[in-house]
Amino acid sequence: MNGLIGHGALLISVAVIVLGIGAGVMAGRLRTQDWINAVYSAVYTNFVLVTIATGAMVVALVTHDFSVSYVAQVGSRATPLFYTIISLWSALEGSILFWGWVLSLYAAVVVWTNRRRAGALVPWSATALLGVSLFFAILLIGPANPFHPVYPVPSDGPGPNPLLQNHILMAVHPPLLYLGYVGMTVPFAFAVGAMLSGEIGSNDWIKLTHRWTLLSWGFLSAAIIAGMWWSYEVLGWGGYWAWDPVENASFMPWLTATAFLHSAIMQERRSMLRLWNVNLVVGTFVLTILGTFLTRSGIISSVHAFTTGTIGYFFLAFIALVLVASLGLVAGNSDRLGSAGNLDSAASRETVFLLNNLFLTVFMFTVLVGTLFPLVAEAIRGVKVSVGEPFFNRMSLPVVIVLVFLMGVGPALPWGRASRDEMRRKLVPPAAGAALLLAIALVAGMRNAYALAVVALAGYSIVANAREIVIGMQARHEARGEAWGVALLKLASGNRRRFGGYLAHIGVFAVAIGIAASSSMRSDREATLKPGESITVAGRTLRLKSVWGRDETQRSVVGATLEFVENGRVAGIIEPRMNFYPASQQPVPTPAVRSSLLGDVYVNLQAFRPDGSNVTVKVIYEPLVPWIWAGGLIVVLGAITSILPQRVRVAHEADARQPATGARGALAGLHANVEAT
Amino acid sequence: MTPKRKWAIAGTAAIIAVFGWMLYGGLDKNVVFFLTPKELLAKGTKGYDVPVRLGGQVRPGSVKWNDQTLELRFALTDGSSEVAVHSKGTPPQMFRDGMGVVLEGRFGRDSVFDATSLMVKHSNEYRAPKAGEKPQEMYRTLIKGSGS
Q: How are beta strands B100-107 and B82-88 bridged, if at all?
């Protein structure tokens, strides 16, 4: 029954999408309200239908309806309800269904918030969104159909991949990633819509696109950090990034989207980079599809790649189609994509933005080359190779160092032209921040040259960004006599996008410092301990208290209890475990982490004697790891700050009583169209 | 404006050229070949002391773990050839006889592959345990004998 409802809803949605695209072409050409309404209705109807299909899948999962192929594949009666629900995205078909649902949701929200907008931009954009939806709908009724009937109906299933039911972050990371990844479809749709409607020359569409990119970028940033955190907490090797193709797939569109967030401002303010911006938007979207292709087609062997199948060809065909169509559109609009503005001076924020775009793009290409090289080598020379971590680290470190520095220089320089005196006043004082952090790092024992450079330049840029905030506060304080706290709040709400940008920068610096410290100053030791024996790493002593085992609902657990010993007294315990899932051939390591502001003690249970007489543990001390997670949170706060609607002066009083926060406010903000920077 | 623009274009081109050169050099040095034991042995002396990824199955019954020196030894096979593997710091409980693994490391002149990292071939696809593959067996005794 669930299978029938789900599959039926998807079949109808294909028809609705096809009709909607037809109506969209008419609406774009004739611009009559009836056709426009028809497109919008198709978008809303598609959302309802895909929601029904997704709902049917969730019901099937929860009720253990093993007649549905996807449930038979990932469901199990022993799996707790929570993990049963999130197993919606634990394998290929379910994740494509979830993708389709997120896309239909985005499309509906985009259309709803912009439905009163005049012109052909929104109808054409809605048509583009339907076009992308069509691709995923075809996948869902074809090669990735999650609703295949299963005969005979099995009485139980294997449950989701143990790795995916071992940690709560699995409920957080994939939805965030989908919201970020799928969200990049919206800027792409706007670009297509703007080119088809002839509005590409206006700066209107770029403002709209900028806000939507910020939203997706915020989700994607959060997803990448959550993924790093998951890898750290679950995989047991004490690392958070390995340049795995899956990680690279999420990172590449992040880089191009970050570039766009900056270059879009160039277009708004200076009417520059029009062609470049369209290319960035299209490129970001293609990278998300390419990433999905890489991770979902099984073409690259990865720790967490899904199954092989025909689905890869669909993705390749779709990527080719998107590229050809976009190139055709760009060529057709080339007369409107010329740059109207010019660079006044090399000493300006514009220059820094251009360099930022250059380096972010170069960074993206490096990751792309490293990720695709194994494919090319196998296709051309027939050899199986992989590109090691050293390649990525060596290539990315210089770029990261330059980018961290530019993030400090950019906000400090004015638009247009900076005088010599202005440059001295703005660019010299932050060097104190660099000196301070460099000194701290040296005293703390950091010796790696790259890490020291990152920390020092982060110190420079933190001061440069914080100074911009302080200067703004000071101006308000002196001109209007506002208290410092009030001045900060007014400043933040007065120019949310710029303030959010500074905040996001500071978050990135925290992440950079956390990565520099934890990767260059990590110490680890491994030992086999009998109860009562201790191990000491980086001045922290752990004593094995006991080895134990117990059965839990869906798994069995073997664990060790270790005590932190400080000055002969017990100062807390830590319990690394191994979880055994019935469906898995090997246990899932479940390291335990004790975090503090300065660093993490990370303990992984490596091995145990079945009689409990000893265990082998690996103890890692990693400084400043929590800074990475905290920095990620600050980045997201920056993105939220930037998206929140700008207060309009007329509505000031009403706003003060009823602040436009939360989802409604954010949506209104995406709709709002005010000068922000 | 024109000379300025020329400089900008020259600068951009220089950065991209340097990067392209680094990219080429970096790839050349950091490409790791993925081999099976048979392919590794066929390389003869050329196979010694270069970083490779070695893929194959753990030969059943070959796993030896020394919990005092933390050394793991086993034989990796591709069905026709096999290579002796030595690894330090690898969690042995991740091991099932016959499972697929990918090792990263170097083949030493003593004809032992020294693995620096070991990846288990994870799969999202469910495969029913074959007879004799009961992961439960190894920890049952501990759970029964455990007081806590």
A: unpaired
Burial class (CB in 10 A: 0-12, 13-18, 19+), A310: exposed
Q: Any idea which fold A523-627 has? A: Tick-borne Encephalitis virus Glycoprotein; domain 1 (2.60.98)
A306 CB within 8 Å of a chain B CB: yes
> How far apart are the CA of A129 and the nearest CA of chain B, in angstroms?
31
Whether ipTM > 0.90 holds is no
User: Residue B39: inside a domain, yes or no?
Assistant: yes
- Segment holding A399, helix H or strand E: helix A389-412
B143 found inside a domain = no
Q: Which residues pair with A527 in a beta bridge?
A: A617
User: CA separation (Å) from A129 to A175, A184, A208?
Assistant: 20, 11, 15
Domain boundaries, chain A: 1-160, 162-428, 431-520+628-671, 523-627
Contacts with A551 from chain B: Cβ below 8 Å? 143
Q: State the smallest CA–CA distance between residue B128 and chain A in angstroms.
A: 7
Per the domain annotation, does B139 fall within a domain? no
- pLDDT per position as a tens digit, A161-184: 777 778 888 889 999 999 999 999
Q: Do residues A499 and A644 lie in contact, with contact meaning Cβ atoms separated by under 8 Å?
A: no
Cα-Cα-Cα-Cα dihedral sign, residues B77, B78, B79, B82: negative
Q: In this complex, which of A157, A343, A610 lies closest to B141 when CB atoms are compared?
A: A610
User: Quick one: angle between helices A662-671 and A625-643, nearest 10?
Assistant: 60
Q: Is B45 on the interface with A (CB under 8 A)?
A: no
Q: Could B142 and A551 be called an inter-chain contact, meaning their C-beta atoms sit closer than 8 Å?
A: no
CB contact under 8 A, A589 and B94: yes
A13 vs chain B: nearest CA distance in angstroms?
29
Do A580 and B139 count as a contact with CB atoms less than 8 A apart? Answer: yes
**CB-based contact (8 Å) between B93 and chain A?**
yes
**Distance, CA of A182 to CA of A99 (rounded, Å):** 7
- Could you read off the pLDDT of B40-50 as tens digits, one per residue? 898 888 888 88
Residue B36 shares a structural domain with residue B81: yes
Q: Which residues of B touch A556 (CB under 8 A)?
A: 136, 139, 143
Rg of chain A, C-alpha, whole Å: 27
Asked whether residue B17 falls in the same domain as residue B36, the answer is no
A-interface mutation test, from B4, B124, B130, B141, most A Cβ less than 10 A away: B124
Residues B40 and B101 placed together within one structural domain of the fold: yes
Residue B16 sits in which domain range?
A: 1-30
What is the tens place of the pLDDT at every residue in A431-456? 999 999 999 999 999 999 999 999 99
Instruction: Give the amino acid at B130.
Output: K
Q: A475-524 pLDDT, tens per residue? A: 888 888 888 889 888 888 888 889 999 999 999 999 999 999 999 999 99
A583 touches chain B (CB under 8 A): yes
The model's pTM is 0.90
Q: State whether B148 and A586 contact (CB < 8 Å).
A: no
Inter-chain touch B27–A391, beta carbons under 8 Å: yes
Query: Which residues, listed in sequence order, are joined to residue B64 by a DSSP beta bridge?
Result: B73
Looking from the CA of A476 toward its CB, the CA atoms found within 13 Å total 18
CB-based contact, B106 to chain A, within 8 Å: no
In a domain, B136, yes or no: no
The CATH number linked to B117 is: 2.40.50.140
B89 and B20, same structural domain? no
The answer on B103 and B55 residing in a single domain is yes
Looking at the fold, whether B51 and B115 belong to one and the same domain comes out as yes
Quote the crossing angle between the two packed helices A449-480 and A484-494, to the nearest 10°: 100
- Residue B128 DSSP code: P
User: Is the minimum CB–CB distance between A585 and chain B shorter than 8 Å?
Assistant: yes
Which one, of A572, A575, A516, A562, lies nearest residue A536 by Cα? A562
In contact, A620 and A238? CB cutoff 8 Å: yes
Number of domains in chain B: 2
CB contact under 8 A, A391 and B29: yes
